[in-house]
């Protein structure tokens, strides 16, 4: 998705998407005007709603960043979901295990543990790719399922809450949860950590040699290699960073929202991160805005669902549709003579 | 516990369950083999199956007729696969991106439409296919019951697997079809219509994938829930790779995956203290190991996932 979308095409994409949204609202037997007003009301109508957008955006920012960093290097990381789970597991484990370490120190340890865990998880796929040429797409998909099941085992065995018999870990005490910033909303400090990480990633990618090499490998493997840039080293580094970032999403979900380790903790955050990265053209700042956009769509849609029964899956339809339209943009708008680009040799 | 497992009765019911779980994967896997041999990677297979499942349910629910349900399922699958086809063949876009977007789109559409047509109470069941027992063959110990006491879609897939093997190995049309995935440039030079065959392969991908999803509804479950395929499309992808792009290999790999699901259910029913998740992981771990072991003897189509642009080098 490296070509620029022309203005006419962008306008058409917006028109088509809005038309579909209206159609879907009509099919579910609701009035579009009412629905749209509920949508915006859900987001802007209350402090809770607005802050909820940032709460929901936080994990998406991390998985989006994870995918963006990986994609920039040409490493197609579909394993953000699994890396999320490993991050959640590692951080929950550290937080519950090291109860002698106090407050902030333990939180820091949890983040580090999560990052390393997720990084290693992604590293497996990168290693298999560099060493054996095995497609990272299928490896990361397999690792996703393995990670989800590992968490399932963990909450039923060594992480299980000794005081109950539900498949979940013991509750994490308040002193090590990420602090809430604006009671009574759910907004927590994780969102601001996310913004800081966005800026950090941007600096690393655009302003450092490391970032330069990562991007070079993504643009032109052979050219990079001929210039002395090690492909293997950079794919390994990129995957480790990517896995770590995705794991942060899991860490935050455990420490700020769930306050324990439990199954089904991610709500497909990892997969959504892929689409967010693509829509943001793998740019870190873009990821921030697209994640907030997506989160606001989720909040608005759930308001529409609560009050008018419009299924919230409308968000998935529209997001998928937007990506499909962007991919198919050459078919939209005024017909050009050449539909297929000529590949330059 | 071990004595309980090695009884004929246990093995027979286990094998039966393995076959039942494998059939949707085999249908989808066949569809994916057509696509990948034509050089197109369809990660959207999950969306194809889910779409097939939903429209089979909708068709069956509104008409009460299984045949119409199956037809709707096939069309539903094709809907997704042809979008992928247009983006990959006509426009030459990144096939992984397209696949993932289509999965999200399919999940959204099926969940949305399902919420609208379901009443929320006990959902209307659709009629399911009954089993047909083949005499003599179904009496074979252990495997007879599983292989020959199934429904008609299962028997059809046996025939399809054989037909696909014959198609690719023994017919010149099949040779043409597989050449476009290996070297579309050479195939084009030889006069083979690369794009046309790719579109046909994508149509088959949709039909077969849609049938895989329809099987879940019209044979196994009789009802639909959101995200009912829950990853089976990805497992079918893994089965294709594990089976090294051959229909029989893929079917055997699917059987292994089916077996892993089956054994997990049986062991749980027997009260074995292993958490279900440990057994759930087995197929995925096996896939990774198999990928490692078979490295180097790669039978992946050379031009897989590379868009073919006529006139370029």
**Largest sheet properties of chain B:** 2 strands, antiparallel
Strands ordered across the widest β-sheet of chain B: 1-2
State the major sheet of chain A.
Answer: none
Instruction: Report the total helices of chain A.
Output: 13
Count the E strands of chain B.
2
Radius of gyration of chain B: 20 Å
What multimeric state do the chains show?
heterodimer
Task: Give helix and strand order of chain B, one letter per element, not per position.
Answer: HHHHHEHEHHHHHHHH
Radius of gyration of CA atoms of chain A, rounded to a whole number: 21 Å
Category by helix and strand content of chain A = mainly alpha
Outline the fold blueprint.
The complex is a heterodimer of chains A (345) and B (313).
Chain A: H1 7-27, H2 32-44, H3 47-72, H4 80-97, H5 103-132, H6 136-154, H7 190-207, H8 209-219, H9 221-226, H10 231-258, H11 269-279, H12 284-308, H13 314-327
Chain B: H1 2-5, H2 8-37, H3 45-63, H4 66-90, H5 95-117, E1 132-133, H6 143-148, E2 149-150, H7 152-170, H8 172-182, H9 184-189, H10 194-221, H11 232-242, H12 247-269, H13 276-280, H14 282-293
Antiparallel strand pairs in B: 1-2
Helix pairs in contact in B: 2-7, 2-10, 2-11, 2-12, 3-4, 3-5, 3-10, 3-11, 4-5, 4-10, 7-8, 11-12, 11-14
Write out key terms for the chains shown:
heterodimer, A: about 350 residues, mainly alpha, 13 helices, B: about 325 residues, two-stranded antiparallel sheet, 14 helices, about 0% strand
